[in-house]
TrEMBL record:
The protein's name in its UniProt record: ATP-binding cassette domain-containing protein
Presence of keyword Isomerase: no
Residue intervals of the ABC transporter domain: 18-257
CDD domains: ABC_NikE_OppD_transporters
Pfam families xref list: ABC_tran (PF00005)
Alphabetized SUPFAM superfamilies for the sequence: P-loop containing nucleoside triphosphate hydrolases
PANTHER family linked to this entry: D,D-DIPEPTIDE TRANSPORT ATP-BINDING PROTEIN DDPF-RELATED, TRANSPORT ATP-BINDING PROTEIN
Transport as UniProt keyword: yes
Alphabetical UniProt keywords: ATP-binding, Nucleotide-binding, Transport
Length: 269
């Protein structure tokens, strides 16, 4: 088993020896693709674990298993010290939320912002003291969207604004963990910095844990406290962000770092 630091009782989420197989077919021939192979990672409370690797490394599949969207072939997910059982999945969906790569494809184009942001409450049957409209406006204001735009459709926003709406939706159920799957990779560089700063601020305000999936190690340097590096479905290196980014042991990680573009000096997150 390959294990990613950190470990111990203070972990909000643990993935223990996760494996995911997909059966593929070509004509009458079937084969098994191992997307994630015996990977263990941990997300400390109120901290950020960045999982990095090139396309096809298995990092998004790992994220979906950690977020209870995919059932592992083997291994288990542990949240707040308790192994996740099928009976607990629905309840834990309040605790674990996603922010996806393409904000427009993850927002219903026919729904207003109010409907989008409050959807998790309706699906979970969560009761709140405020009316839904006021609740949505407060969340929009918190993520930097004009609360008066609560009746607009997603198509009336820029990509960065749409991603902020996706973050507001993720916050609706007051989760403890947010999984960001390439959440800034579709945005312009300057907008990336703004959204990353928002995520950092929200973490400080609400004590959120982040599982941050990305291929961009420049982004990792700005947001992560811990890093796990994946290649071909396996974990090849892990540790603190400073350790991995400043003194990587593995050649694969070193090659990833060589490909990092220079980022603006004013990205002072």
């Amino acid at each position: 088993m390959t294990t990613a630091d950190p470990a111990g009782p203070d972990l909000l989420l643990e993935a223990r020896s996760l494996r995911k197989e997909f059966v593929t077919s070509r004509g009458l021939r079937k084969s098994t693709l191992v997307a994630v192979d015996d990977v263990s990672v941990g997300v400390p409370a109120a901290s950020t674990l960045a999982v990095v690797g090139e396309s096809g490394s298995g990092k998004s599949t790992l994220a979906r298993m950690c977020g209870l969207l995919l059932e592992p072939t083997a291994g288990e997910v542990v949240f707040d010290g308790q192994a996740v059982t099928p009976e607990a999945v629905q309840l834990l969906r309040r605790e674990i939320q996603f922010v996806f790569q393409d904000p427009f494809s993850s927002l219903n184009p026919r729904h207003t912002v109010e409907q989008i942001v409050t959807a998790p409450l309706r699906y979970q049957g969560t009761r709140i003291r405020k009316d839904l409209r006021t609740f949505a406006q407060d969340l929009l204001d918190r993520v930097g969207i004009n609360p008066d735009h609560v009746d607009r459709l997603p198509s009336q926003f820029s990509g960065g604004q749409a991603q902020r709406i996706g973050i507001a939706r993720a916050l609706a159920c007051r989760p403890r963990l947010i999984i960001c799957d390439e959440a800034v990779s579709a945005l312009d560089v300057s907008v990336q910095a703004e959204v990353l700063q928002l995520l950092v601020d929200l973490q400080a305000d609400y004590g959120l844990g982040y599982l941050f999936i990305t291929h961009d190690l420049a982004v990792v340097r700005l947001i992560a406290t811990h890093v796990a590096v994946m290649q071909s479905g396996r974990l090849v290196e892990s540790g603190s962000a400073d350790q991995i980014l400043d003194a990587p042991r593995e050649r694969y990680t070193q090659e990833l770092l060589k490909a990092v573009p220079a980022y603006p000096d004013d990205w002072n997150i």
